[in-house]
Structures are given as structure tokens and as C-alpha cells.
């Protein structure tokens, strides 16, 4: 059976969920061979094997942390040459897309970015994209070279499928360009203890209607009662009420949770671009004409300062 | 020493319009007004600021697109860019990411550059990979997705806010930079700027000027094919209630019925 390269996104050996989803999708088109780079790469093997990786190619070098993107492209290219895969799948993070794109030109292939689904087709993998702020769904194929496809988080349910996951050392020689962009300092993001925004099953977001940084406490309280991640509109972020890393939308994160709760958010096209594919959408807004209500499964026209705390109490009471 | 800055700007259909696809599954450009991709305004802004801080600098804006794409160039010129290059050729219709990056890279090389500045992503294709591809093709460092950028003594520095960390980056020129919408508000063109833009030079190049063959680009040269494009079915109208004191409880009832609690 054809092999499919899967680029592993991990933090010190802890595999992030979008990679496990990729393994599930990869199995539809072939046998997943995972590529894990950097510090802790070997520690990813158990989780990857558990989810279907027949092989795990690993390599660590200081270059991965000290320089931007290119060392990882060099390594993925080395893996590509070692394996001759039928496709290369990469998680659609900002960095993942850049790695994938550079690899695609190097190997003379086309690229599809931000796929939300993947199937085997007669002429190679068929990718589904959700475009124009999720108002259209397209199906595309790479028709030249080896398909390079980046896949958004929450595009597939993670399925366990134990496989050998044999660890092999990947041999990499870095190109001259690998050391072109130095990373001179790195400040890791502090963990909030809440689920990762792009991976969360439930996202609770606040917008301009929240009216102040201190008021985000009521959004957080609702999120915590539901075990949810917290999101924000750009208006709330630009006002300095919540960190940019929590922004949902075109220039923020795109989320596709089971449940999205928008409070005090009007539903501008750029915000919708980041949340319109959520399975169930709920909004609380005092303006009955707000465009967000066109999207909702359930909407409450009301003051969020009344509705949200009441909802939080009720959730807590029902959860006991 | 003069600093040559090339800013790549894309002409895109207005996101607030009713965007859709033409029969050949490329973007329908006739039905919706086009404009300078809003995220490229941030690239123009940073280019102007870097130029203003340099002894001697020139800002050239570059677009690959149909006739109307001149509008995007005019907007950038009216913000303060010095000159513009328009790559236009009927054979470009339907060009994909790989092809676009090829045309842009050849045009940048022909124009001459020390620094290329792009937006973080276009507002239509939204791939966010063209800047990295330009760096790959030009063989220069990529310093991408910056929320803060500065250039001094032949070195570009910037801050990249990633998923798990915030990084400080540094590279020597020549380099390709892309900036996010956190990099600083873009200026509005002044009346004077708009008038001045009318007199600024706009060069037009076609594929032969760039020594690119027609079959390398356009639908014919594309590395990807779109098989179908379907409008997402309208959501079935949801339940909307007015809060009369019980709104939170009603919502909780709905969430429970959907097994979220
Ligand atoms: C290129 C570009 C990229 C962009 N990217 C993004 C992006 O990634 N994400 C994003 O979100 N936006 C983005 N935007 C901005 C976007 O266009 C909107 O300006 C933004 O989403 C508005 O945020 P909002 O809904 O919080 O604010 P508003 O539109 O001001 O809406 C606030 C809402 O809160 C309601 N409200 C007020 N008080 C209360 C109350 N007490 N109780 C209940 N409801 C209340 C109001 O009725 C109103 O509907 C982008 C814009 C551009 C041009
Ligand atoms: C909905 C949609 C989905 C698409 N999906 C794919 C796909 O999966 N694979 C594929 O190969 N092609 C795809 N395309 C085509 C692709 O978008 C175009 O080829 C495009 O010109 C380059 O990609 P981008 O607009 O996504 O650029 P991005 O990488 O998002 O743009 C980043 C920056 O590059 C610069 N730039 C991009 N294009 C131009 C230009 N024409 N002129 C000047 N500067 C420019 C701008 O500075 C911009 O801010 C898609 C197009 C659409 C409309």
C-alpha cells in the first residue's frame, strides 16, 4: 500500500490533536509514515503508533529551534526523498502551511491549503475546502507532482488504530539557507489551563458587547462551566480586553467546534470566516437585527450581562 | 545606500459582497467590486514607515492580476508608494499558488529589491503561503507573520506571535517579510496623495517580459484543479427567543437537549 507522509506537530514530544486527526485522514489514502522533528521527537512515537503510524521518522538538531521554518523544510524533503510517498499531509498551522508550501515548490508539486476533509479518489486524494468565509465548499485535487495538502484542525474525529510505529532516525543535511532567519528569543505562551482554542469541542466567545477587560470574567466563567475555550472578536482584542491569540476569525484562529457561543458579537463577515463551520451555533445579543442571528441554531435577544451569568449558574446546577 | 522595497499587493473581490465562482470554477470577478486586499494595506503601511526611516528608499508596489487590478495599485500609490508594476496577461487567468509565486518572484527579480513586504494572507484565497514561497524562490530569508518590524543597517528584525510562543526574528537583507494586521493601522490616503498618485508611474509587464511561458501559469499550467464548488446550504432558521428574565435558563434547556450539558 502507498505510504503517506504526515508531518507531526508536537510540543516537546506531546503530539497535538490535529496531527492525530491527520493520521486518521492519512489512513484513507495509504499507510501513514510520521515525521517528527526537534526536541522530544522520539517521545511522540507511542501516540503516533497508537493512531496508525507504521513508521516514525525522527530527527533532532538545534537548528529547528534556532532558525525559522527552513530547517524543517529540509528535513521534510529528506523524508520525502527517503519514502517517495503518495501524498504529504501537514497540519494547517501558520508554520505548517509555510513548510508545506516550500516543500511543494522544491519537489515540483501543487499544494492545497486548509482542507477540511480528505478522501481517496480515482486520480489521487480529493480535498474539501471551505472558502469565502465558509459560504462555498469546493473539492480540489493536486494534478502535478505529489499532492501536498494542509488540513485544518477539527477536520476528522480522532480514531485509534494501533500500528507498528517503528522509530527510524531520519538523516538530514541542512541547506545553506537553513540558517537565514535567526530566532533570537522565544517566549512560550502561558497556559490558561483551558482547552486549546482550535481544538476545543466548545468555544465561548465575547465581543465588543462585553464592554471591558474585567467583564471577560463572565465569559470565562461560562467557558469554565462547560469545559470550553475562550474566544474573542477582533473588536474586543483591538480594545485590549483579551489577548490576540484568542481572536476568532479571518486574521485570528479558525475554529470548528461542536458548539460555538457568541456573546456581544455582531457577526461581521471576517468573524464568520473563523467560526461559520461550527456544528451548533448559539448567540446572545441585545440587537435582534445582528447578522449573527442568521447563523444560529439558538439565539437569545437580550443583555449578555443578564443572560450569560444566568446560563452559567444553570449549567453548574445541571452538572451538579 | 538606497533601500529598494517591493510590496506585493493583491486585488480581491470585496469580502462583504456576494462572492462566488464563475463557470470555469475560478473567482467570478465581474459580479463583485474588487479592491486592494485589506491585509495588504498593512504591508504598504510598514513599507512606507521603513522607507521614511531610511536615508534613501524607494517603495514599489507590485500586483499580478487583471486590468482592474490597477485600482489596487492606485490605492497603494495614493497611500504614498513611489511607483507600481502591474503584471497582466490573459494567460494568467486561473493561476494557482505555485504559478502566482513564480510570476511574483520573476517580477521582483526584474524590478530589483532589497526587501519584499507582503500581507499575511489574501482575503480571497487566504492561503497565507505566498511570502514563504517568494523567499524559497528568491533564495533569501523569510521573516514572516510579523506583528512588529524594523530595518536597520541591512538587518530586518521582527516579532512573530505563534500558536505556542512569541518569537523575535532577525535576518540580513535581502529578505521577504510578511506582516499581520497587528503591525499597526494603515494610513488613509490624503487628498494630496490621491492627486499625486495619478501622476506616478505604473509599468505594465506581460509574461514575455518575465520570460515565463504561457503553459507554466493560468488554468493550463495549474498544479491544482477545482472539480466542484457548491454554495453552502443556508442554515435552517434557528430558534430565537427574547430574554424576559429566563433567557439564560431557556438557553441552558436548549444546550441540555443537544447533550452539551
Ligand atoms: C481585513 C480584516 C480582517 C478582520 N479579521 C477579523 C477577525 O479575525 N475576527 C473578528 O472578529 N473580526 C475581524 N475583523 C473585524 C470585523 O470586521 C468586525 O469589526 C468585528 O468582528 C466586530 O466585532 P464585534 O462583533 O465584537 O463588535 P461589533 O460589530 O461592534 O458588535 C458588538 C455587538 O455586541 C452587541 N452588544 C452590545 N452590548 C451588548 C450587551 N450588553 N448584551 C448583548 N449584546 C450586546 C451589539 O448589539 C453588537 O451586535 C476584520 C476586519 C478586517 C477589515
Ligand atoms: C477560495 C480560493 C481557494 C484557493 N485555494 C487554492 C489552493 O488550495 N491551492 C492553490 O494552488 N491555489 C488556490 N487558490 C488560488 C490562489 O489563491 C491564487 O493563486 C493566489 O493568487 C495566491 O494565493 P493567495 O491569494 O491565497 O495568497 P496568500 O498566500 O494568502 O497571500 C499572501 C500575500 O501574497 C501576496 N499576493 C498573493 N497573490 C498576489 C497577487 N496576485 N499579486 C500580488 N501579490 C499577491 C500579497 O501580498 C498577499 O497578502 C485559491 C483561490 C481562491 C479564491
UniProtKB/TrEMBL annotation, chain A:
Family: Belongs to the ETF alpha-subunit/FixB family.
Record-linked InterPro entries: DHS-like_NAD/FAD-binding_dom, ETF_a/b_N, ETF_a/FixB, ETF_alpha_N, ETF_asu_C, ETF_asu_C_CS, Rossmann-like_a/b/a_fold
Keyword Transport attached: yes
Cofactor list: FAD
Designated name of the protein: Electron transfer flavoprotein subunit alpha/FixB family protein
Organism: Streptomyces yaanensis
Stated role: The electron transfer flavoprotein serves as a specific electron acceptor for other dehydrogenases. It transfers the electrons to the main respiratory chain via ETF-ubiquinone oxidoreductase (ETF dehydrogenase).
Assembly notes: Heterodimer of an alpha and a beta subunit.
Record keywords: Electron transport, FAD, Flavoprotein, Transport
SUPFAM superfamilies: Adenine nucleotide alpha hydrolases-like, DHS-like NAD/FAD-binding domain
PANTHER family: ELECTRON TRANSFER FLAVOPROTEIN ALPHA (PTHR43153), ELECTRON TRANSFER FLAVOPROTEIN SUBUNIT ALPHA, MITOCHONDRIAL (PTHR43153:SF1)
Electron transfer flavoprotein alpha/beta-subunit N-terminal domain ranges (all copies): 4-183
UniProtKB/TrEMBL annotation, chain B:
Gene3D superfamilies: HUPs
Protein's name in the database: Electron transfer flavoprotein subunit beta
Cofactor: FAD
Alphabetical list of Pfam families matching this protein: ETF
Keyword NADP: no
Keywords from the named record: Electron transport, Transport
Assembly behavior: Heterodimer of an alpha and a beta subunit.
Family per similarity comment: Belongs to the ETF beta-subunit/FixA family.
Superkingdom of the source species: Bacteria
Function: The electron transfer flavoprotein serves as a specific electron acceptor for other dehydrogenases. It transfers the electrons to the main respiratory chain via ETF-ubiquinone oxidoreductase (ETF dehydrogenase).
CDD domains linked to this entry: ETF_beta (cd01714)
Domain (Electron transfer flavoprotein alpha/beta-subunit N-terminal): residue spans on this chain: 24-214
